[in-house]
Amino acid sequence: MSSISAFTTQELSGGPSGLRFAWLTMVLLVGMMGIGGSLASVASAQEEPAAAMDTAEVADAGDADSEEPAADAGVGYAFDNGFLFLCAVLVLFMQAGFAMVEVGLNSSKNTINILSKNLMDLSVGALLFFFVGFGLMYPGSYGDVTNGYFAFGGTGIYDSSPDQTFSPQVDWFFQAVFAATAATIVSGAVAGRMKFNAYLVYSAILTGLIYPISGFWKWGGGWLMQFGEQAADGSFAMGFQDFAGSAVVHAVGGFAGLAGAIFLGPRLGRYTAEGKSVPLPGHNVAFAALGVFILWVGWYGFNPGSQLAFQSSADIDATVFIAVNTTLAAAAGVIVATAVSWGLFGKPDLTMGLNGALGGLVGITACCDAMSNSMSIVVGAVAGALVVLSIVALDKAKIDDPVGAFPVHGVCGVWGCMALGILPNAHLESGSTSFMIQLIGTVSICAWAFITMSVVFGVLKAVGMLRVSPQEEQAGLDISEHGMHAYPSDAVAGGSVV
After folding, report:
1. What number of other Cβ atoms are within 10 A of residue 268's Cβ?
2. Which residues, other chains included, contact 449 with Cβ-Cβ below 8 Å and sequence gap of 6+?
3. Distance (Å, rounded) from C-alpha 222 to C-alpha 148?
4. Residue in 351, 228, 233 with CA at minimum distance from that of residue 281
5. What angle do CA 271, 272, 277 make, to 5 degrees?
6. Which of 179, 202, 223, 387 would give a disulfide with 359, using CB separation of 3.0 to 4.6 Å?
7. How would you label 445-460 residue by residue, b for 16+ Cβ within 10 Å and e otherwise?
8. Can you say how many angstroms the Cα of residue 109 is from the centroid of all Cα atoms in its chain?
9. Segments in 190-284 forming alpha helices (H)
């Protein structure tokens, strides 16, 4: 997630040397992917040694027959639950990454406000997901569900049963930190001008209602999984695919953030009276870089953890395969985002490179189980380009998203799901999805998040509860909303200079 670079206000033609280097870098990347001169068949990307196992088998590794001896039930149960718990902790640690990115790319006078919002996202989200959200998202765990659009199973955590492979407690924990992730994405998009009490209202509604309902559509057995003919076991031949949440988690947060940025309007001084863009650089890019590295590490709980089973050799093979795809996509996102920004602005922009990493991670989240290694690079590369172009487009539209939440999570979340309907992958080959199914599912989830949160932000604005006053914004939300400074030097000086 990135703020608009200082280079954005320059001519987009950039320097000739920067443009040449950008194109050279992109050509080299294409060459490394084996697409340049050897793309006689797109499907050849599936033939690389690292993906020698059929990718369809990888996608269904948890159900694959194996000749290996059956693991002791107690040991297997312990391993599955222990590994899923560790993955949940990694996802929880991503909150620190989001906090560092958002703090680093915003003014120092809003540091405490941003940290407080991240803390409350996790805390409010955990409680509401316990009382309401979990029962909305997985009602079938509490009883039979016939309605594919909305159902409520009950409050709290469902009871355990003898045939379960993991504890309901660890199940709730893993899902709760996903819900907190969706909520905290919005924090950066509305930074510097939203009232703290209004943010608490938003966070409660998203984690308690909005996210769980669309999550049920895909992960809880809802209508997005009910395409095609129904088999004797109750399963469906086709369904919307989103392995770890490019749309379910990230696009929900990204489109909610877009709604918030639109209804709030830009920060003071972000645009001149003539409409010219004025960069408002963050106060600590080192924090932002640290945050991205933390998020990258945390993603190995996000994506590999979504395998959910780890006790067989097939499960472990699939988990490591997912981790490698995650790494390749993030790396490609960094390279392409840096190259594109270099070509556009004449210099390599670190914040764009950081955004490229996050965009690649978001993009591969939906398809990390089904893409070959080569196709994962393609997914990440496209995401890296989309991040930069989307940030520029938002700036042209005068929509102020200080950390690039919508380009990273909204745009790249959409791309990750649509890639499953476009690029060669196990789901297309097996006929378990199609371009139209991916389009229907992606549009439905994004529209749900944007429309519902537009209503929430619109009501808050109508009652005068959404945005702080110009005087409070100028002073900084640390003082006006919390009555304290993040840095002692600001208190001594009587305020913040950035």
Report:
1. 12
2. 210, 214, 251, 252, 253, 255, 256, 259
3. 4
4. 351
5. 45
6. 387
7. bbebbbebbbebbeeb
8. 27
9. 196-205, 211-219, 252-264
Q: Which two tokens stand for residue 359?
A: 């965009």
3-class DSSP assignment, residue 277: strand
Residue 224 in contact with residue 240, Cβ under 8 Å?
yes
Q: Which amino acid is at 300?
A: Y
Amino acid at 4: I
- 456 to each of 186, 400, 485, how far by Cα in Å? 13, 19, 30
- Structural domains in the chain, CATH included, are 6-36+45-63+74-488 (1.10.3430.10)
Q: Per residue of the chain (498 residues), what is the pLDDT tens digit?
A: 434 333 333 333 344 444 444 444 444 444 444 433 333 333 333 333 333 344 444 444 444 444 555 556 778 889 999 999 999 999 999 999 999 999 999 999 999 999 999 999 999 999 999 999 999 999 999 988 888 999 999 999 999 887 778 899 999 999 999 999 999 999 999 999 999 999 999 999 999 999 999 999 999 999 999 888 888 887 888 999 999 999 999 999 999 999 999 999 999 999 999 999 999 999 999 999 999 999 999 999 999 999 999 989 999 999 999 999 999 999 999 999 999 999 999 999 999 999 999 999 999 999 999 999 999 999 999 999 999 999 999 999 999 999 999 999 999 999 999 999 999 999 999 999 999 999 999 999 999 999 999 999 999 999 999 999 999 999 999 999 999 999 987 665 555 545
